């Protein structure tokens, strides 16, 4: 499972270090620090971030200006944000609220409060899109996994056996399955039989491919590519079967090759 990532934007270095230490130790997430809003925006444009903790009172480019830029950016506008504030002024909180931020943490923050508020926020966030990769070549599957996780906000799982696949599917909300049709432990038809027997899996798209196709993909990755064609932002989560099939098409398109069968 991918580690959650928190970006803390605060001009006080002590606050940054304390927040980083507490969250990484107690919430088990990765924390990135920025000491000004402009640096924070640049980090958001380059890194996958689940939650931003944003100080309101900062010199030059304050928290409200930073938040406004986040909301104005088509690729960042849905980023989850919590405000950090030592100010009692209601005006700034009202401005943040008008920009979609209802959560704030008072400074100086107590460790228990910070832990509880961030943990609760993670629980409230919409579950990430999840892809299950099934196959027999672990190196190939890891290469596909790295590609998916670096280019989308998706979590991905790998299964090398039928038992592993069943455990993952029964315990997790899977959005898309990409399976090697040549697997010894289960072929495409057996996989279809399995998911058809599970009520919650009936609408999960299954894409079948071959080891040859995956090898072709890995060869493509060695050649220069147009980044805009490889990286495409998914703005909405798949909910209905139609949405999920659309997501399947987008993901398989983004990883650079067409699958043999798309159900």
- Please tally the β strands and state the result: 10
The parts where pLDDT drops under 50 for at least 5 residues are 221-239, 254-263
Q: What is the CATH class designation of the largest domain?
A: Alpha Beta
How many whole angstroms does the radius of gyration measure?
Answer: 21 Å
CATH topology of the largest domain: Rossmann fold
Give the N-to-C terminal Cα separation. 26 Å
Write down the overall geometry: elongated
Task: Kindly report the spatial arrangement of strands forming the biggest sheet.
Answer: 2-1-3-4-5
- Biggest β-sheet description: 5 strands, parallel
Structure description:
Helix 1 packs across helix 5 (111-124) and helix 2 (37-46) packs parallel to helix 3 (63-72). The chain has helices at residues 13-26, 37-46, 63-72, 90-98, 111-124, 138-151, 162-171, 188-197, 211-222, 227-230, 241-254, and strands at 5-9, 30-34, 51-55, 80-85, 104-106, 129-134, 154-159, 176-180, 206-209, 261-262. The protein is elongated. It folds into 2 domains: 5-124, Rossmann fold (3-Layer(aba) Sandwich), CATH 3.40.50; 129-262, Rossmann fold (3-Layer(aba) Sandwich). Residues 221-239 and 254-263 have low confidence and may be disordered. It has 263 residues and is an alpha/beta fold. The two termini are 26 Å apart. The protein has 11 helices and 10 strands. The chain has a 5-stranded parallel sheet, with helices on both faces. A 5-stranded mixed sheet has the order 7-6-8-9-10, sandwiched between helices.
Summarize the structure.
The protein is of the alpha/beta class and 263 residues long. It is built from eleven helices and ten strands. The chain has helices spanning 13-26, 37-46, 63-72, 90-98, 111-124, 138-151, 162-171, 188-197, 211-222, 227-230, 241-254; strands at 5-9, 30-34, 51-55, 80-85, 104-106, 129-134, 154-159, 176-180, 206-209, 261-262.
């Amino acid at each position: 499972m991918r580690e959650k990532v928190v970006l803390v934007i605060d001009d006080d270095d002590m606050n940054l270090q304390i927040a980083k230490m507490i969250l990484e130790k107690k919430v088990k997430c990765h924390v990135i620090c920025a000491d000004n809003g402009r640096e924070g925006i640049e980090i958001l444009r380059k890194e996958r971030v689940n939650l931003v903790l944003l100080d309101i009172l900062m010199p030059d480019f304050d928290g409200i200006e930073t938040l406004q830029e986040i909301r104005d950016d088509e690729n960042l506008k849905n980023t989850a944000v919590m405000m950090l504030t030592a100010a009692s002024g209601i005006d700034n909180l009202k401005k943040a609220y008008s920009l979609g931020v209802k959560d704030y943490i008072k400074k100086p923050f107590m460790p228990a409060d910070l832990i509880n508020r961030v943990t609760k926020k993670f629980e409230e966030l919409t579950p990430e899109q999840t892809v299950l990769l099934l196959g027999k070549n672990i190196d190939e599957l890891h290469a596909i996994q790295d590609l998916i996780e670096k280019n989308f906000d998706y979590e991905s799982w790998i299964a090398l056996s039928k038992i592993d696949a069943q455990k993952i599917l029964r315990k997790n909300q899977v959005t898309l399955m990409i399976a090697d049709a040549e697997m010894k432990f289960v072929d495409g038809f057996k996989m279809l039989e399995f998911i058809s027997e599970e009520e919650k899996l009936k609408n999960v798209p299954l894409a079948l491919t071959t080891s040859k196709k995956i090898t072709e993909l890995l060869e493509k990755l060695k050649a220069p590519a147009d980044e805009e064609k490889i990286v495409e932002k998914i703005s909405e989560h798949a909910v209905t079967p139609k949405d999920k099939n659309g997501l399947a098409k987008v993901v398989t398109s983004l990883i650079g090759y067409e699958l043999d069968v798309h159900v």
